[in-house]
Design a protein that fits this description.
Blueprint (H helix, E strand, L loop, with lengths): L5 E4 L13 E4 L5 H18 L7 H22 L3 H43 L17
Antiparallel strand pairs: 1-2
Helix pairs in contact: 1-2, 1-3, 2-3
């Protein structure tokens, strides 16, 4: 949604709502709801990618904030507050993507460390005494 543009709708000076200031909406009023719904779907998808069982305490807090943004965006959508729904959905999506990315990096780092260990053992053999299959067995005590 990088290309979303916003506009302010000015009301006439005789309007009762004019004392509250301009009403800000997404530029294309007919598709405001659709844009908000699409962003909410993205946020829900991004939150679903996060593996809750693998989160640290701080990441759990971040996930809860993202989930709260998503719920608030859904409520704003139902209240026809589409600009707010888009903004909250974007925040939820951004936080969830960040968590999922951190998890992916952590998983890949663990896989790389495991592969490196396996290669080390294969090339150098196990360095523990008595674990080399070519060495003589240790005498019994």
């Amino acid at each position: 949604m990088a290309g979303v543009r916003y506009s302010a709708i000015q009301q006439s000076p005789t309007s009762k709502a004019s004392s509250a200031g301009p009403v800000v909406t997404l530029e294309d009023g007919a598709s405001d709801r659709e844009k908000a719904q699409q962003q909410l779907v993205r946020a829900e998808r991004d939150l679903a990618r996060v593996q809750g069982h693998a989160l640290s305490a701080q990441e759990v807090k971040t996930y809860e904030v993202a989930h709260r943004f998503e719920r608030d965006a859904e409520q704003a959508l139902h209240q026809k507050r589409y600009l707010l729904a888009v903004g909250l959905s974007r925040k939820a999506s951004s936080l969830a993507r960040s968590l999922a990315y951190q998890q992916e990096i952590g998983q890949r780092t663990a896989e790389a460390a495991s592969a490196l260990n396996a290669l080390k053992v294969r090339l150098l053999g196990n360095s523990e005494p008595g674990s080399n299959p070519n060495s003589a067995p240790s005498p019994a005590p």
